[in-house]
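Would you kindly consider the sequence and fold I have copied below?
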Amino acid sequence: MARKKGSGKTLGMTQISISLPQDLVAQIDEMAKMDNRNRSNFISNTLQNLAKEFTVSEAKKKLK
């Protein structure tokens, strides 16, 4: 994805800060390592997949 010059941020992305228990961070780091990703990318992709699943689930409920 293209970056703005000098900003250090990726276009279309928002940086957030959250606090997590240390044992959860350790688990996330291990899963990310197994998936050959960094922590941020792993969390981002996992949340994107969760959002897609939720959207599909909600759409199926509306069809019933």
In short: Residues 39-63 form the longest helix (25 residues). Helices lie at 22-34, 39-63.
